[in-house]
Amino acid sequence: MTVTDTVARAAATAGLPQPFAELGLTADEYEKIVATLGRRPTGAELALYSVMWSEHCSYKSSKVHLRQFAATAPPSGALLAGIGHNAGVVDIGQGYAVTFKIESHNHPSYVEPHQGAATGVGGIVRDILAMGARPVAVMDALRFGPADAPDTGRVLPGVVSGISFYGNCLGLPNIGGELDFDPSYAGNPLVNALCVGVMRHGDLQVAEASGPGSTVILFGSTTGPDGVGGASVLASATFGDAASDSTESAKRPSVQVGDPFLEKLLVECCLELFAGGLVTGIQDLGAAGVACATTELAAAGTGGMLVRLDEVPLRDATLGPPEILMSESQERMMAVVEPGRVEEFLAVCAKWDVRAAVIGEVTGTGRLVMTWRGETVVDIPPGSAADGPVYHRPLARPASQDALAAGDPAALPRPADGAGLRADLLALLGSPGLADKSWVTDQYDRYVRGDTVLAMPDDAGLLRVDEALYGAKEAGRGRCVARD
Amino acid sequence: MRIGVITFPGSLDDRDAARAVRLAGAEPVGLWHGDRGLRGVDAVILPGGFSYGDYLRCGAIARFAPVMADLVPAARAGLPVLGICNGFQILCEAHLLPGALTRNAGLKFVTRDVPLRVENAGTAWTRAYSGGEQIVVPLKSGEGAYAADADTLADLEASGQVVIRYAGDNPNGSAAAIAGVCNAEGTVVGLMPHPEHAVDPLTGPSADGLGFFASVLARVAA
Fold first, then answer.
1. Which of B5, B111, B114, B213 to mutate to probe the A interface, most A CBs <10 Å?
2. Phi and psi at residue A479, to the nearest 5°
3. Which of A126, A161, A228, A435 has the smallest count of CB within 10 Å of its CB?
4. Residue B52 domain boundaries
């Protein structure tokens, strides 16, 4: 028998111990939530805050440093959307703009290389889509441990097959990337996925829920128990929101499984929705799924939203509110739609065989409210979850930094004779990082869409943006983003 | 001259096929998998892609699309039909072409510019070439190994139904290095390489693929 931890129950049971530490929150952070709400959070609220305030979602430790990019960047009229959006958008003239973003998916790709890398591609493509652009190409910058290390033999082929599986099936040309090996990446590979999109200036979409009365629609894949490992601690007798028992939770994969076919349908469906003017706000669902999409849409818009969690299409009927909020199931988007356009919206989704569900509406209350089986389980100011804490962590310059900076490359030993030169040359020729990369790149489709002007083995990818106009997207820029 | 290009859920190269049709001088007409009727087109192309994700056997679901109920009898009655990659797989599943496509010999997806030999320049889709002509066209597929039983292979060779053959290394383990075949009448052609990606030297390895689309124009005009 499970008991729903409602807002009313939370207000009546102040001081009940809650597993905030197990969900990754500090005591200070938990106290901040209690102070914000004026009561202890419900299980669903605790789940929501824990994922929204994670380092992964809130950048609470790095935010103070990352802000410098926006503060010190020279002003540019070419930047149509910058830091704070799902992806940057750059004017390339004649009414066209390109958007591109690179994101790491390192740890999932180490745990389960094939699906980890595949869902890395899927996630970055949805970021580009959420800006209103048509995704037109992907790239990957990869770093692995030594080529002859046994674990590299597990990670590298899996990562490459995952990128190949997802990108090829999705129909985006892979126009370049990087591949290198170094012992420092053993056990910690770098798997960076980049996506480029093209749009007309007027196509730019916003991630906000504005206009009370507008409808909130969740569309794409169903919501399953993937990536909700943390929610299992809420499935105790005290916080019986998660209906499934913890034994079952333990069997769940921590890495999500990608469905590139559904993503292809989602891309075409979204672009048709945008073209029809059927969307006033759009957000992709990545880390923290419904929790993140609802709080960010609400916080950026009018501020209020009512969500009926019972309406979320589930692939596992035993999921409760915390799990629905935390689920990281792939290939999902959330849209804000004017009430008069909902039928048209649903018709476009039906045409593309994309499942869509009306899960709530925008309100003028300034509160994000969620109901479950007729009872309120979430009632928070959305900005408190979307913004998160900001920390100024202590800094120290590592001692090795000075030695590194003082090092003079000219002082490095050089071959003194022919034999030394020969040995250096052979070492370079035999280096996996400099070797022919066609074993990797032959597994990627570089031709699909028919706009690829340059791709592997060229030094950079180059795309034709529009056949009638000029083409320009120098991939080197994408690589610079990767190194930053 | 109107040439239909069918879009199935998961079709990816439909836009490229339409572009190739346009470059060849004809009008591309989009056909939707869920609609009935062929909108009076003079020929049809089934483009490449991953229809229904190819999660099941490639082409096994697409062959049941509503539009196929009109395409199959029209093809049997002589309508020129070209299947490229996934389109070839769908034509085999629909029994408009003999044989089947199976996993590549290396079990990996292969993208490569491959030299091809035009073995039969008499089909509706290859008459712009000359017999034995060599062309270079991209191949990009994971399940491109052509397979058929020994009798079928012997029949195909004897009747000239092997239209295109890999001229260099066999990139995927296809039987007799077969890259494309046709029906007995030479009106329905399927091939794994992508001629629609070789229509402009700017974006492809050559413009060698344009001949497929030019061929059917001559045929339809005749």
1. B111
2. -65, -35
3. A435
4. 2-221
Identify the pLDDT of residue A399: 85
Looking up residue B52, the CATH number of its domain turns out to be 3.40.50.880
CA A369 to chain centre: 24
Set of chain A residues whose Cβ sits within 8 Å of the Cβ of B19: 450, 467
In contact, A226 and A256? CB cutoff 8 Å: yes
What tokens appear for B55 in the block? 């999660």
Closest CA to B160 of B120, B118, B207: B120
Cα A388 to Cα A198, A260, A365, distances in angstroms:
32, 32, 21
Q: Give the burial string for A374-409 (b: 16+ CB within 10 Å, else e).
A: eebbbbbbbbbbbbbeeeeeeeeeeeeeeeeeeeee
Comparing CA positions, the residue from B123, B222, B137 lying closest to residue B179 is: B137
Helix (H/G/I), strand (E/B), else coil: A449: coil
pTM attached to this predicted model: 0.92
**CATH superfamily placement of domain A7-61+205-387:** PurM-like C-terminal domain (3.90.650.10)
Q: Does domain A77-204+450-483 have CATH number 3.40.50.10490?
A: no
ipTM: 0.95
Question: Who contacts A322 (Cβ-Cβ below 8 Å, separation ≥6)?
Answer: A43, A44, A46, A47, A228, A231, A234, A241, A242
Give A112-149 as a DSSP string.
SHHHHHHHHHHHHHHHHHHTTPEEEEEEEEEEES-TTS
A355 contacts A222 by C-beta, under 8 angstroms: yes
The domain total for chain B is: 1
The ranges assigned to domains in chain A are 7-61+205-387, 77-204+450-483
Interval A90-131: pLDDT, tens:
999 888 999 999 999 999 999 999 999 999 999 999 999 999
Instruction: Please give the C-alpha separations between residue B25 and each of A449, B20, B128, B211, in angstroms, as whole numbers.
Output: 20, 9, 14, 12
Annotated catalytic residue, options B58, B85, B92, B182: B85
What would the pLDDT profile of A408-465 be if each residue is shown by its tens digit? 888 888 999 999 999 999 999 999 999 999 999 999 999 999 999 999 888 889 998 8
User: What are the backbone dihedrals phi and psi of residue A255, each rounded to the nearest 5 degrees, phi first?
Assistant: -105, 135
Structure tokens at B58: 């490639």
Q: What is the mean pLDDT of residues A314-319?
A: 93
Is B110 in contact with A447 (Cβ distance < 8 A)? no
Residues 6+ apart with CB under 8 A from B22: B28
Please check whether residue A80 is in contact with residue A72, taking contact to mean a CB–CB distance below 8 angstroms.
no
Name the E strands within A23-130.
Answer: 79-81, 88-93, 96-104
Check if B194 is active-site: yes
* In the predicted structure, residue A249 carries a pLDDT above the cut 80: no
B29, β-bridge pairs: B4
Rounded CA-CA distance B13/B46 in Å is 9
Tokens encoding A37 = 């709400």
Tens digits of per-residue pLDDT, B10-61?
Answer: 999 999 999 999 999 999 999 999 999 999 999 999 999 999 999 999 999 9
Disruptive mutation site among A445, A458, A466 for chain B (greatest number of B CBs within 10 Å): A445
Give the Cα separation of B1 and A138 in Å (integer): 36
Closest residue of chain B to A352, computed from CA coordinates: B9
Using a CB-CB distance cutoff of 8 angstroms, which residues of chain B are in contact with residue A450? 13, 15-16, 19, 196-197, 199, 203-204
pLDDT > 90 in chain A, percent: 73
